[in-house]
């Protein structure tokens, strides 16, 4: 091995790859640029369709660069082409904010399409999917590649047409929901999706890590009662400390003996009697909703409905809901009408959805922090692409304060000083309530901020576009996945790297640059260092000046939740400032504990879902054989031979085959829905059953889930035969399917199940992790 290669391996970050080969290809593309520029549009399109182009990456880059220059007005930098090549090689490209990930991703998607692959470009919301497809549309057209987009409002016909395109932009949730709906069709013509081989994921770390284990759910109408409002009224009157207590992480709440007596007095029953289990469950769920879920922190109320807030993005989590019992309890707490609930017909996690694609790649500004997880769960490596211009952002050390009150005063003073100097400020807060409290304090200090949070996320693009204007102060809950660049000087426009500032002569840009550029302020560390880095990355784009600083306190929620046993008794300076290194270590330690707990929860949930995924694939293989072939007809001819022969004589072979298909599909779907419900109950109870016996919950889960899964197909076939025996021929020679009891849900809908905030079954099993991580004290 050459000395240079050994040195590279020594200094290269684990999980990353060497991008030198990509940069060499980009340089070769530059040498071909003059020749390609002389081509007409028709010649350029023809060159993009040449059969040997996919093998000549330098030629593809030269053609793609010229196409972008002509129709988008952007000539991709060499580093953008390096990012494109990383994506085309099946890696995650880490590119800083403002470096042109959207264009790099479009070129990569076009490259895959020109190889004959069908590509799904997955974004985090409708707006970005539609914007990027429209923005990059002319580029795809010039390269001879078709493109479309899908959003929540897309009709089945629109979805079906969009999936025929070479490249489809869509939110990851919509692609998952379409897959779930297609899994339940009874006629192949009703399916909307076409199989794709490439998943190209924007905000890859957010999708692949933060949302990896979020279940996407297809539900069907069922007769489920909403939460009884009397339980919400009851727990609202209970007193903390006397009637209930919470654990030290404030993730669980339980009745005290006095609380149980008070509940029994009000309800007039023995709360712990076996026949009152439903009441006990209802009280506990109502208590969790009342004590642990906070309006404007965990959710907002908009248009008469509870809207969950995404913890990783600080905005409304569209279509997300908690498990039905908790969702109904929160609605009762807020005195709102109950939202629809029903039986889960099928579900899939984001991680399982992404795993279906043979080729996976993605782009983000903060991938290296989760390189290990991307490798462990997806076999992905990171290509760290340097910025086109060196980053000169001034990242200051954290400013730590003893109390939250001291920190709040310092934050306002810092913002006011920057505002007075004409410097734009972007402030990242932890939740909606904090953003609004800070805004009120700024107004009292004579500063008029613009607030961007889950209550006004529809206006986010316009707000962010003006965040770089002289003296602008923007308070935001989280900047992850906002998808809009902040330019010095402000002004609307597509977030394209390298364009002129919104003010044509650049005077406002120069004015803001002279003031120091955009100042990013964090009002506390997030639970993940990646979110800190995403906030920082909003400043210093494309070599612009800028700065960042985080204000933290020893009373921040991160510290009190994840490092409650760490105390600081050292000196405190003027205005509550703490300079001690040990105190700063406590904040970093709390963040590392939070990251460690999140990783273990991910691993544990993944282990459970592996088995479920294997069982679902077996059922789907059987279902596909029934849907597209004669498997059902052959099965019924064998299992109900006399009835099959009788019906063939009266109704004909085709009608019997169709009836058999409908019956077997229905029974397969029913058995799977029941199996999902069984697995859910099993997982909920397995930890309690194994807790006192020192058993491994996962082993115990598999011990019961595996045999149940093996029985599923047999049960479906037996039910199908029994239903087939009940069929009768009609007077006109048809078959009466109503006799088979094929009653599918009258309505279906899709949603994402938000993590149970007071402790999912996995989190309850892993509560000891926090204690374990707490024990890792500094040397």
UniProtKB/TrEMBL annotation:
GO terms for cellular component: cell envelope Sec protein transport complex; cytosol; plasma membrane. It is a peripheral membrane protein. Residues 82-277 form the Helicase ATP-binding domain. Pfam families: P-loop_SecA, SecA_DEAD, SecA_PP_bind, SecA_SW. Part of the Sec protein translocase complex. Interacts with the SecYEG preprotein conducting channel. Has a central role in coupling the hydrolysis of ATP to the transfer of proteins into and across the cell membrane, serving as an ATP-driven molecular motor driving the stepwise translocation of polypeptide chains across the membrane. One of its GO terms (biological process) is protein targeting. NCBIfam families: SecA2_Mycobac (TIGR04221). This is Protein translocase subunit SecA. It catalyses: ATP + H2O + cellular proteinSide 1 = ADP + phosphate + cellular proteinSide 2. Its EC number is 7.4.2.8. Belongs to the SecA family. GO terms for molecular function: ATP binding; protein-exporting ATPase activity. ATP binds at residues 80, 98-102, 485. The gene is secA. Residues 4-583 form the SecA family profile domain. It is found in: Cell membrane; Cytoplasm; Membrane. Monomer and homodimer. Part of the essential Sec protein translocation apparatus which comprises SecA, SecYEG and auxiliary proteins SecDF. Other proteins may also be involved. InterPro entries: Helicase_ATP-bd, P-loop_NTPase, SecA, SecA_Actinobact-type, SecA_CS, SecA_DEAD, SecA_motor_DEAD, SecA_preprotein_X-link_dom. Keywords: ATP-binding, Cell membrane, Cytoplasm, Membrane, Nucleotide-binding, Protein transport, Translocase, Translocation, Transport.
